[in-house]
Amino acid sequence: MSHPAEHRNDSLSPAEAVDKVLNATHCAIKALQESWDPGPVTAWADYVLASKGRVILCGMGKSGIIAQKIAATLASTGCPSFFLHPAEALHGDLGMVTTDDTLLILSNSGESLEILNLLPSLLRLGIRIASITSRSDSRLAQASSWCFTYALPSGEGCPLDFAPMASTTIQLVWGDMLAAHLMVRSGFTLEKFAQFHPAGSLGSKLLKTKELMHTSFPVVEPTTPFFEVLSAMTKGRLGMTTVTEDGRITGVISDGDIRRAVGKAQSVQGNPLDLCASEIMTRNPVTISSDLAAIEAAGIMESRKITFLVVEEHGQPSGVLHIHDLLTAKVI
Fold it and tell me: Which end of the chain is more exposed for a tag (fewer CB within 10 A), N or C?
C-alpha cells in the first residue's frame, strides 16, 4: 500500500537530509551563542547554590529524555539532581519534591499538556521553576522564575519538518551550559569528579597514588646479605625491595637487578651469595609524591620502562606503587 505523497519527502536525497539536520543544528547553536543572556543563568545559579534542595529535571517525550541526561550530568558534577516524569508526578510522585527544590522543565513549545497540568501544583507549593523552551510567551515560560530560551532559525532539520531534532540538541546544550556554570561557581574539582565516578574509567584515571599504593612493603639496609634480600622480596610479594639507610631511601632492588647481579658475579667466577644489597641495588631510584595522579605515575613508569615507583614523603619511603595496581584499578 502506497503512502500519500504529502507524507513523504522524495525531494531530498539521504545525504541532503543529513545536511539539513546538520545545518539546522548549526544555525540553532550559532543563534544561541550570539543571543544567550548571562543574567538569568547567574540568577538561577545563585538560587541553586544558596538552596538546600535539589535541581529536579522534568520533561515529556523527547524533551524528557534530554532532561534525564541533564539530571545525570548535574548529579555527576556536584549538583544533587534527579528526573521527575510529569505524568507520574500527577499521580503521586510529586511527593518527592520539597519546597527547597528547584524544577528545571524542558518543553520546546512550552505548552505540553502534562507540563501545564503540573504547573498549578508546583506554584501552589511555592516551588521555583526554571524552563528551557523556544517560546518566551508560552505558559511554561510565564510560570518560570528563570527562562532559558532558544531559536530554531532553520527549523528542526527533520526531512518531514516534524520530528524533534535541532530542538532536543539545543536543549541538551542549554543543560550543559548550566552544568558548566555551576561547576565553576561551586569550585567543582577533578578529585570530586572521581569520587562520583568510582566505577568508571574516568574516575579511575583521576585516582591519586596514595589511593593505590602499598603502605606495607619490603625494606632492607645496604649491608643486608644477598640471601636476606631474596627473603625480603619473597615475603613482600612485590618483586622488589627498598634499600634504606637511617630511614632514607638510597636504592631499590628489583627482580631484574637480582638477575643482572647473578650474571655479573658468574662472569667473574664470583659467588652471588657473597653480595650485599648495596652491590645489587639501583641507586637514586625515581620517587613520587602520594598526591601525584595515578595516571601521571603510569606515564612515568611507561617512559622509564619500570614496573614500580617508590612513594616518598619528607625524604622517607611511605609506599610502593606497582604497575599491577594500576592495571587492577583500570588506570591503564
Answer: N
d(CA 325, CA 309): 11
Instruction: Judge whether 176 lies within some domain.
Output: yes
Find the DSSP H helices in the chain. Answer: 14-35, 38-50, 62-76, 86-89, 113-125, 139-143, 166-186, 190-195, 201-204, 226-236, 255-267, 277-280, 294-304, 323-328
Q: What is the pLDDT of residues 129-174, one digit of tens each?
A: 999 999 999 999 999 999 999 999 999 999 998 899 999 999 999 9
pLDDT of residue 5 exceeding 60, the answer is no
Starting at the edge strand that comes first in sequence, how are the strands of the sheet with 146-149 ordered?
81-84, 55-59, 102-106, 128-133, 146-149
The amino acid that residue 330 corresponds to is: K
Question: For 311, how many CA atoms within 13 A lie in the half-sphere containing its CB?
Answer: 22
Q: Is residue 83 part of a domain?
A: yes
Is pLDDT above 70 for 198? no
pLDDT tens per residue across span 118-127:
999 999 999 9
pLDDT of residue 270: 86
The parent domain of residue 66 ranges over: 5-188
- DSSP output for 281-305: SEES--EE-TTSBHHHHHHHHHHHT
175 and 235, same domain (yes or no) = no
On whether residue 72 sits in a domain, the answer given is yes
Q: Mean per-residue pLDDT for 59-87? A: 96
Mean pLDDT of 72-89: 94
DSSP 170: H
**Distance (Å, whole) CA 238 – CA 325:** 10
Cell of 148: 532559558
Position 267 scores a pLDDT of 87
Cα(154)–Cα(143) distance, integer angstroms:
28
